Amino acid sequence: MERLLPGEEAKAFSEDVKRLEGRNNLTYLMDGWDDSQRRSIYGCMIAEVAEFPVVLGVEELTGIRATADNLCDVATKALAKKSVDPKSIIAVCTDNPTPMVAFCRKWTNEYPWILYPTIKKTVTSNSRIVSFFNASHYWGGQLEIVAKENKVTHGLKTNTESRFYVLILQALNIRDHKASLTTLCLRHDAQHSVGGLTPVARDVVTTVFDINRWQRTDQLIRVCKPLVDIIGDLIWAHREVTRLPLKSGDDSGFLRHAQQILNTQFHEMNTDLHWISLFLHPLCRKLAISNSRHSRKLEDAYKISLTIASRWGWSKEMATALLRDIKGYFHVQAPFQGGKADGRDWWKSLLVNVTSHPLKALAIKLFSIVPHAAEVERFFSNLVGIQSVKCSSLTVPHMETLGTLRNHYTRHLLEEAIKAGKSTRRKHAHMHTQADGGINVERAEDLIWAFNWTPLPANFNSDLGVVPTIHII
Questions:
Q1: Helix, strand, coil shares of the chain as percentages rounded to 5?
Q2: Measuring CA to CA, which of 8, 161, 244, 462 is 20 to 30 A from 173?
Q3: Contact predicate 403/382, CB 8 Å
Q4: 52: Cβ contacts below 8 Å, ≥ 6 apart
Q5: Could you tell me the pTM of the whole model?
Q6: Where do the domains of the chain lie, and which CATH numbers do they carry?
């Protein structure tokens, strides 16, 4: 092992460096994790739409505060490991705790061309039960036996492949184990120490027998189930939750709170970066600017695009051409006519020069951003298998090596499967689930019809309208 492992690592390292050469639309992903030894570890990866992610490294911050300065140091070291030029990074994606937000702000100040969509962490009220039984070898095994007797074949889940699904899937999972948990916690040895053995934690037993908690879990599932497909079905989820009835025994305050928060977050999620990306999808330009009360206007497209162009250091001439492109694109004028489900592919295939039509360059870069950190979550999930009870003495460098190699071998297996014509389970670094890529065209058309978009007259704002003043750096 000591002889073979370094050679395999060097091979994977060399291939990763070669794969990153010449790529300029990269998204930097970073997330933190506590391993089985309670060490504070941060994983760093590079992702790009339609490309397999690359592991940059794993850094330990145990005993060191995760400040913005320290996280910036982690990012700088990670990029240097595989010779990634910061100028090739167009976006940073993290979760949203205060240190991560501060890191994004500080790094953006240092590298002003970088954008940063953030990701919301999902918190589940059932995590205590899950963490106890998954951490206890004995009681976890006992629960598995009882669950099989109740014909429940899956275990308690602490993580999923996408954080957007954690809350509802874990709630459903807990409900499936309700009978098994109740049966197990009724046992004498689960409530009292027998033969010096540790019983189930008292707070876990109390939680399992809390009738109100089970009813709230059922209500949580009913209210949040429409949100499972929130990425593609957000508007339908919003309508569904607002129409939910208050059943006997429900907590009316929770239902009102869920509806109010959803309504607020529904519009807060419509950030400048998300909206301009929606606008630049050729099949959604009419959806981005509609008759909806909260719809943005053409002037917003001018402002947002110029702000991004300023960050990227575009010249005044390119900025002026960008404004003209936006107007022509909005009115579906040549050469911006037509469209297809895969917006990135449509822009790349557009037969225009990026110098004369800089909107093409802007759109391709925005559609290359990976808007989630799921790849880092998956990387850590894979390390859980490596960092088992028997292997808990692994050092952080060993974890980095094994995690990198696993990612390396997984990429090779995927490439071989594609060459053999086999179906692959998912598209890496891409959020959609369409079999052929791109958006759901029928859903987009339905939304456009629902919002009753009305085009502006052809002679509207012939001088580009109210174009904001912005200093081009």
A1: 55, 10, 40
A2: 244
A3: yes
A4: 411, 414, 415, 428, 429
A5: 0.54
A6: 4-117+370-419 (3.30.420.40), 127-268 (no CATH), 273-362 (no CATH)
Question: Could you tell me which of 463, 472, 469 has the C-alpha nearest to residue 317?
Answer: 472
Task: Measure CA 72 to chain center.
Answer: 21
- 302-307 CB contacts, 8 Å cutoff, 24+ apart: 302/326, 302/464, 302/465, 302/466, 302/467, 302/468, 303/468, 303/470, 304/272, 304/273, 304/275, 304/276, 305/276, 305/359, 305/362, 306/467, 306/468, 306/470, 307/272, 307/470
Model confidence pLDDT, tens digit, residues 452-471 = 444 444 444 444 444 333 33
Say how far apart CA 388 and CA 399 lie, in whole Å. Answer: 11
CA dihedral 308, 368, 71, 83 (to 10 degrees): -110
Count of beta carbons in the 10 Å neighbourhood of residue 4? 8
Amino acid, res. 294 = H
C-alpha–C-alpha distance, residues 226 and 239, integer Å = 9
Q: Report which of 237, 31, 27, 42 is spatially closest to residue 119, judged by C-alpha positions.
A: 31
- pLDDT tens per residue across span 413-464: 888 888 888 766 554 444 445 566 677 777 777 777 766 444 444 444 444 4
Q: Is the distance from CB of 255 to CB of 246 less than 8 angstroms?
A: yes
**How far, in Å, CA of 269 to CA of 249, rounded?**
32
**Average per-residue pLDDT in the chain?**
76
Q: Give Cα separations from 188 to 24, 131, 183, 192, 359 (angstroms).
A: 62, 22, 11, 6, 69
CA distances from 148 to 93, 134, 171, 177, 437 (A): 40, 16, 19, 10, 39
